[in-house]
User: Fold these one by one.
Assistant:
Number 1:
Amino acid sequence: MSAPVNLLVRAGHVLTMGPAGDLRDAAVAVAADTVAEVGPFEALRARYPAAEVVGDAHGIVIPGLVNAHTHMSEALLPGMAEDLSIWVWGTRLLLPTMPHLTPEMARVGTLFRGLELIRSGVTTVNDMFCHAHPREFSSLGVVDALEELGLRGVVCFGAEDMAWKAAPEFSVARILEEHHALAERAAASKRVGFRMGLGTILGQSDALLVASAELARARGWGIHTHLAEVREEKTEAQLRWGMSTVGRAEAAGVLAAGCVAGHGVWVSRAEMDLLASTGTAILYNPTANMILASGVCPLGELASRGVPLALGTDGMASNDSQNMIEVLKIGALLQKVHRQDPEAANARQMLEMATLGGARALGLGALTGSLEPGKRADLVRLDGNSFGAAIVHDPYQQIVYGAGPESVSDVWVDGRQLLRSGAFLGHQPASLVPRVRELAGELARSGRIKDFSCLAH
Ligand SMILES: [Zn+2]
């Protein structure tokens, strides 16, 4: 017997992102961890008189947002190196810190940034933890933190070995061992799934790339990687293999394994067709692409070919925040100004990418991403008394261009409330800050980041 309806989440606009479409003065009826019904508020109120009601006839309710690409390994690295190109940024900021990232840094960093995600309406996060700790499987700390927070997630170890390939502790066998350990930790969790992680195609030795793709295929694991993010990647790949990284990924069996790939900025038309035919999802990270001046993802061309699309913040080192609502806005604006065409992207498209698009890309479309009976109760309420949701003509446009984290009032994952009237119900940011500062300082010192003082000079 199914659980009784215990909660009605009401708003002036309920955007289901599913078959029920957009509803006025409506509610989502929640039974324990599941969406039981979506419909007019008065009818649901009459049917379930004992249920708690959260919300009123104003504001907006949406499915929880899916942040389809980030790096909790960068949780402690905000606010540096804005004037480095991505090629230099990787070698001068990320590589020196990677061997010093501990499981404790992973756990505490994820707790802190996870709260920032919740505050901006995220209920599912797809993480790639990139580290090179020689003795510990640091990526496992992310699963522990997501569990503590109550967030839904997909984790991977963004493995690379080219920078450390002379060191025995970065043998292919040891790297594969961490994938197995992370998969096991995720399998034991309630809401965290696993993918095989390839940091970048160029960052992997051929031996690791082939072994990773084979293991993913054998285990039925999807893959999470970066692809065609930066112009230099094309030249480097041509010199190394005589083909692009997209071509190399295809040849190694990466695309056939069910792949989601960050960026897809530097892709030819033939490569876009290949992404479409293999069902490879492109995870658009406009804020990071702008900070690192990487280029502009050809969103319209990818969409017209049927390439699955999702939206991400990317990591703290190339975004400086995990504010997903800001990404919705920047994602549309970048396309409009780049194409000099106000119709190049729109608010509805951004919200679709950040909800059902992201969920489907991650293989979670049956579980989350839209408000439909039977799906998990992952939902977000934007309060009608906030600046961002007080006046609503077009709710899509209002959320994408007008709202911010301060509009996000309530967040539920699996029917469990994580944010209530703007207050966190579990961990509090202020109580995490002292430890976060301490670990961030330790990481910068260990990676000798201070030596750069200002990294660019
Ligand atoms: Zn990334």
Number 2:
Amino acid sequence: MGNFFPRWTNWLVLKLAIALFFILVGVSLGVSYYFTPKYTRVGYEPTQPVPFSHKIHAGQLGLDCRYCHSFVESSSHSNVPTNQTCFNCHGTGKGNIRSNSPKLEKVIQAEATGTPIPWVKVHKVPDYAYFNHSVHVNRGVSCVSCHGKINEMEVVRQAEPQSMGWCLDCHRNPENNLRPLDQITNLNYDASQLDRATFYKGLLDKGVKAEEIAAEIPGGGLLEKAPDLQQILALAEKTYGGAVAQQEVGLQLKKHWQVSPPESCAACHR
Ligand code: HEC
Ligand code: HEC
Ligand code: HEC
Ligand code: HEC
Ligand code: HEC
């Protein structure tokens, strides 16, 4: 019996095998490329048209983030300020701080011509993922958790990967990042700066039951009857030590503000 298939088919099999090999190598290279920090854009620091410094304005001058990013609490999108905000201080009119500085040339030009300064966008999630600023900021997540210490940056650079894994890391353990709402734009905040008595009294004043507060402190669920503020403070000090701890604040806020970030695909991919 002769060979049923002509000779060249042996080569076809080999060619297919080689092609398959390259496809697999290509895919795995592609995957590692997408998931390495370079692709996640940490450190991305584009040159801006005007050398605007957050270190001067938010750090030294102490301007609140919301003075310029005024929609961050009320909108899904956080705005970059319009020229008008800069003219409050740098215009040629009454506020004319250093208005003859060469660094402000483009700002003065913008005032004269009425054209917006073409700021280069730094942070961006792809269009297929849904992100909303106000839900995060109003639930106790600070700018610093997602943008780093902007108040110390001369030029804004991306501090966190903002990849899907990064979003989910926090969604699984939000207690590591929750803080009182009046501290959201204080990028130098640390839980140890809080006064423990004020923090727990604040929860009690909001109507949270003392036994529910105690139950969130490891060992506190074993108390026989409802504790008072002094007993809660003693218990917290025994568990967490003299200074207020992030876990301590985070677990209380997560429980009593009922914070439960979604992990289902449909929450972020709508
Ligand atoms: C005086 C106005 C002003 C204040 C105050 C200010 N910003 Fe900005 N911010 C800007 C301008 C203008 C830009 C766009 C130029 C740039 O990236 O530097 C910007 C850009 C940013 C960006 C990058 C936006 C992007 O393209 O991804 C972040 C993040 C940011 N600011 C966070 C903050 C935080 C956090 C604070 C408070 C600590 C703050 N800003 C305070 C004016 C301000
Ligand atoms: C509340 C007032 C205020 C606002 C609003 C403000 N600035 Fe400033 N800016 C200052 C002060 C004060 C300085 C420091 C001046 C100095 O060093 O003598 C400064 C410095 C600067 C400088 C450096 C100037 C130099 O010659 O070193 C630039 C550039 C600048 N601002 C851009 C902006 C832009 C762009 C905006 C709008 C997004 C803005 N500023 C909004 C008060 C303000
Ligand atoms: C939970 C994470 C998170 C928090 C908290 C957060 N941001 Fe953002 N921010 C992002 C992401 C993600 C983007 C990119 C959004 C996009 O592409 O639509 C962004 C974009 C921005 C931009 C650029 C908007 C634009 O379209 O140019 C500014 C400005 C900004 N954030 C400021 C702030 C300020 C100020 C705070 C605190 C009051 C804050 N952010 C808190 C994650 C966060
Ligand atoms: C540092 C913590 C943190 C990070 C980082 C974070 N989130 Fe969240 N997210 C939260 C918290 C807290 C909530 C509020 C949950 C609640 O209200 O119960 C939330 C809620 C949400 C919601 C539900 C509310 C809504 O808008 O429908 C979505 C969607 C969401 N996050 C998307 C994202 C995406 C996308 C990213 C990454 C680009 C991200 N988050 C990064 C903490 C975080
Ligand atoms: C908390 C929000 C969040 C949840 C929940 C989430 N994703 Fe994503 N996903 C994102 C973000 C943000 C990106 C964009 C990441 C980037 O820019 O690097 C993304 C990217 C992706 C991508 C593209 C990956 C790439 O490298 O290009 C796929 C596929 C995906 N998600 C599938 C899913 C599936 C399936 C689920 C459910 C198991 C899910 N996602 C749940 C936020 C989320």
